[in-house]
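Report of the visiting student (M.T.), summer placement. My assignment was to run the structure pipeline on a short list of targets and document each run. The first record concerns 3-hydroxyisobutyryl-CoA hydrolase.
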Amino acid sequence: MTDAAPGEILFERRGALGLVTLNRPKALNALSLGMIRAMHAQLEAWEKDPEVTRVAVRGTGGRAFCAGGDIRRIYDHARAGDEHALYAMWQAEYHLVAYAARFPKPYLSLIDGIVMGGGVGISVHGDVRIASERYAFAMPEVGIGFIPDVGTTHLLPRLPGWTGTYLALTGARIGPGDAMTAGLATHHAPAADFDAILDGLAGGGDIAELLAARSAPVPATGPLVAERGLIDDCFSAESVTDILGRLDVAASAHSSFAAETAALLRTRSPTSLCLAREQMRRGPGLSLPEAILTEYRLVTRIMKGHDFYEGVRAVLVDKDNAPRWWPATLDAVDPAVIAAAFGPADQAEPSFA
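After the run finished, the structure tokens were exported:
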């Protein structure tokens, strides 16, 4: 499908505001190729429209702002051998993320519920990210044999301390308090106030003043703040093996957080963990367009590998949650293969600048 299905993404002019509504609540507002292309085209139109002075993005249903790209559809394209459709999806999503990040007018996201994958990509690089009480951020790609993408190679290493590396390697979910403290969200407001915020934006007034009047205090924080010292100590290690070693030492000293984190890491794809650790090492030296290009290069290798298909099978197709990774252990992952995955793609590369 190259066009958005009727009603799955909605565009509305409200006074000075251009409003994007992701409207696939049963699919947690996951992005189809049609939605991605339609949103990109509409943003370009609003950029040229002098009557639109700001843009906002929201999702429907209350369960999710956007749970990411339509991974099951990507899996089906790959299994059918349809490389054209497969790479059209990745390129379109990454181009949209890059464009949203450089959009010249104020770009706001009202995030109620889950925000993962592509949902992070179309929100976190914008000017304002308003988190509701149901906000839940995660980049859980290592759990399906993939990598944190949509510009998070640039974003996550720039979070305080080693919290970004922790989020990349574990795929852990955090709430609004931790997100506000880390800088992933810029404001907090109850979901019940989102309509009033949109009305204020439509009126064309000062955005900072509107948000100051409508924002609620930072909510209670969670493990990202409470365990910051342990996270920094463990996730600053050079390799995934060393990270696990430090976590095991902390677990032996009766840290339940360290024990749970180590156990979680051991369920993830060893290859994905090694790729993600290398992303976090390289990310501080990359611009956002360079980071997205790096992710695209990794995608071209992952789509020819084993773990992505096995991970999607285990989580989304058969739902047995028992992936059989290959290689099965960190020791068996070839460092040369990891390094080579970051080299130029074997096919023509798009520009995300």
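The chain is about 45% helix and 10% strand. The first strand starts at residue 9 and ends at 14. I thank the supervising group for their guidance throughout the placement.
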